[in-house]
Specification:
Layout lengths: L1 H7 L7 H12 L4 H15 L4 H9 L2 H6 L4 H28 L5 H12 L2
Helix pairs in contact: 1-4, 2-3
Length: 118
C-alpha cells in the first residue's frame, strides 16, 4: 500500500520492521473497528517518535478502510495486483523521463507502443 510506504519513509532502518509489523495490523484488520483499534494501539506505541505517521493515517482514513469492504482473499489479490501495476508504471516513467519533452501526448504514446513492441 502506498500509505505504508509513505509511513515507512519517516522511519529509520533499525525500527522499520517493527513499525511495518504494527502498520500491518491496521491494514490487515478484518473490520473497520479492529483497524481503528490497531491504529490507536499504533499511536500509543509510536506517536512520541513518529507523530506524522498516525496523523497521515487519520487524515487519509477512508482510503485504507475502503479495502476492508472486500473479503480477505480479494484484498490479497488487490495488493499483489497493485505491485504489478506499480512495476509497469515505474518502467513507463523510466522510458519517458530519459526522453525529455514531448511535443504532444500522442508522441509519448507512440514511443511506448514502439518500445514495448520491439
Amino acid at each position: 500500500m502506498a500509505r505504508v510506504r509513505h509511513s515507512l519513509s519517516h522511519v529509520g532502518w533499525k525500527e522499520r520492521k517493527a513499525v511495518a509489523a504494527d502498520l500491518r495490523l491496521i491494514y490487515r484488520a478484518a473490520t473497520e473497528d479492529e483497524a481503528a483499534q490497531a491504529l490507536s494501539a499504533f499511536e500509543s506505541k509510536w506517536d512520541r517518535k513518529y507523530p506524522s505517521i498516525s496523523k497521515s493515517w487519520r487524515t487519509h482514513w477512508p482510503e485504507p478502510i475502503a479495502f476492508l469492504k472486500f473479503p480477505a482473499e480479494i484484498r490479497k489479490a488487490i495488493y499483489y495486483t497493485t505491485n504489478a501495476i506499480e512495476s509497469v508504471n515505474r518502467s513507463l516513467r523510466k522510458i519517458s523521463k530519459n526522453r525529455g519533452v514531448f511535443p504532444h501526448q500522442e508522441a509519448l504514446l507512440k514511443l511506448y507502443y514502439w518500445l514495448w513492441n520491439e
